[in-house]
């Protein structure tokens, strides 16, 4: 009996496959980057075929490295993905009818502003838990239907399918599925479309009508650990049994199963999720209400704070300013920074996400002196990640207060490898930060969901017991200094907002 689990993580900049053993230890991995397209300012596109082809290649590469005997062949596949990114394809040819519109894409800002001016945002929030923002799939899908020649006729003829990236990959993976191709998603992805009623667990007819979206082109919504058919494209069939959006998969991988538990993932952006249990908490502070995972038909909800620039500010130091050659260099540089200087870098490169949702804001630097140099820039960049996280956590806790023992934040993602950034995060939060040994918690979460469905993985409570922090950062900053520094940041943010 095979006892490995394959995880496919289709992210914004790269696609990864990781093979895990039954104890969820990674055995091998493969990764491939793909092209980002920026056809106009504020537009971000992917070629949906790149997303599919890199997925097939990374899976083949993982197998080539490790699967030498049938015992290592995976018992199940777990799939996780960049969320909100929108793909529309012709079911007859299998070809996308337009480039995939990526979650970062702001082209539908004017549409959203118009809908907000018409007073539609309250309806959207009540039904979907989201804000009326171009970030989500709904207005991207409407754009493709309106702007692609012949799309409306094809939709009327029932030829078009919509999917977030999970759905697109499942459709392609299940080409030879005995029951036919599968057109499905899971609740964690559905709830990011701005078309899904998170209270009723159905596609929302009122919103679909308002945006002119035919409900028939939307996928069937399933649990996160469920039967999504099987793929026969590799040397033996693999059942697809786990599906979740990447931030929700990381929540699962971090074993944040109890209400009050919280994780924050630091990749290109930063996404913090606070488990609120069976209650969908409505934010008064512009946080999102989202589904953390759905098991046995029961959704577990979370509050989510989304920051668009976290690790990307480090990339800017490297590619924009050229003051580092590798992301890791920020550690040594930041440690050398002059403690007397208070430089604040607000990385609003593409506007500000939660809790500000200010698409027009642009980045700013405050506190420059004649002595400011690369070291102070590196420190300010890493500190900006901590400050932004505190903004989110303050807003979340104003909406829903956690019990004192649950104030520990679990972190993961590329930037969480940086001890300076993580120590500053603990200092500015005034709360401990736990980091696991395996920073690939997204892939781990998807593998767990698949393993749960095929009885290879234990129930959530048991899985939570084996979760281990590899490093804990405890606050060391004096409370008065913490207040002084955070007040300075709050002032910098307010001076950066477009309507300041
Ligand atoms: N040691 C480090 N210090 C600071 N930032 C880092 C470090 N290692 C990686 N990063 C940042 O983390 C990001 C990559 O993390 P990753 O989780 O792979 O992101 P994504 O999945 O969004 O591509 C990059 O933006 C990079 O700048
Ligand atoms: O692909 P990532 O890791 O940048 O995550 C993107 C998020 O899912 C967007 O909501």
Automatic annotation (TrEMBL):
Catalytic activity field: glycerol + ATP = sn-glycerol 3-phosphate + ADP + H(+)
What positions does the domain Carbohydrate kinase FGGY N-terminal occupy? 5-253
Q: Which residues make up the binding site for ATP? A: 12-14, 268, 311, 315, 414
Annotated positions binding sn-glycerol 3-phosphate:
12, 83-84, 135, 246
Which Enzyme Commission numbers does its entry carry? 2.7.1.30
Q: Which InterPro entries match?
A: ATPase_NBD, Carb_kinase_FGGY, Carb_kinase_FGGY_CS, FGGY_C, FGGY_N, Glycerol_kin
* Matching SUPFAM superfamilies: Actin-like ATPase domain
In this chain, ADP is annotated as bound at 12, 16, 268, 311, 414, 418
This protein's UniProt keywords: ATP-binding, Glycerol metabolism, Kinase, Nucleotide-binding, Transferase
Q: Where is the Carbohydrate kinase FGGY C-terminal domain?
A: 263-453
Q: Does the keyword Transferase apply?
A: yes
Q: In which pathway does it act?
A: Polyol metabolism; glycerol degradation via glycerol kinase pathway; sn-glycerol 3-phosphate from glycerol: step 1/1
Name the domain of life this protein comes from: Bacteria
* UniProt record, GO biological process: glycerol catabolic process; glycerol-3-phosphate metabolic process
Give Gene Ontology CC terms.
cytosol
Q: Which residues bind glycerol per the record? A: 83-84, 135, 246-247
| Activity control, per UniProt | Inhibited by fructose 1,6-bisphosphate (FBP).
Return one GO MF term.
glycerol kinase activity
NCBIfam families for this protein: glycerol_kin, PRK00047.1
- Tell me the protein family, please: Belongs to the FGGY kinase family.
Q: What does this protein do?
A: Key enzyme in the regulation of glycerol uptake and metabolism. Catalyzes the phosphorylation of glycerol to yield sn-glycerol 3-phosphate.
Q: What is this protein called?
A: Glycerol kinase
Native organism is Celeribacter baekdonensis B30
